[in-house]
Amino acid sequence: MNTETNTANQVAPTVGHMIFGDGTPKKALATALVVGSILTLINHGDQLVVGDMPPVWKVMLTYLTPYCVTTWGAVTGKWAQWKLDFSPPGSDRDAYPGGRNES
Predict the structure, then answer these.
(1) Which of 6, 37, 84, 102 has the highest CB neighbour count under 10 A?
(2) What is the pTM of this model?
(3) NCBIfam families attached here (predicted)?
(4) How many domains does the chain have?
(5) What are the E-state strand segments in 3-97?
(6) 23 assigned to some structural domain
(7) Residue 84 · residue 98 · CB < 8 Å
């Protein structure tokens, strides 16, 4: 099998695949539940202790933020790894070793 041909014909993953593939939503949800709960207690704990309910939109945003940050990190990480793995030889990939398809 000729790796030069395989890397030259490799198509970049779609944004949808990077966002929804490889377990990204599951990991982002787990992160959002843990981090969102901690941030909710930090930011709204005083209100919750006395029995007041903080604005729902603020609580939702507190959970949505770590979900989005985790998803963004996964997408940028997958894109960077793809560039390392499938950049043509002699490109800037040689300055950043570690791609799986290096000779």
Answers:
(1) 84
(2) 0.73
(3) NrtS
(4) 1
(5) none
(6) yes
(7) yes
Give the residue from 82, 56, 67 showing the smallest Cα distance to 27.
67
Range of the domain at 44: 15-67
43 occurs within a structural domain: yes
* pLDDT tens-digit map of 28-81: 999 999 999 999 999 999 999 999 999 999 999 999 999 999 999 999 999 998
**Cα–Cα dist 59/19, whole Å:** 23
Residue labelled with tokens 């007041």: 52
Question: CB count, 10 Å around CB of 32?
Answer: 21
C-alpha Rg value of the chain to the nearest Å: 20
For residue 3, the model assigns a pLDDT of 46
Distance CA 79, CA 14 (A): 10
The answer as to whether 98 is a domain residue is: no
Amino acid at 102: E
Q: Does 21 reside within a domain? A: yes
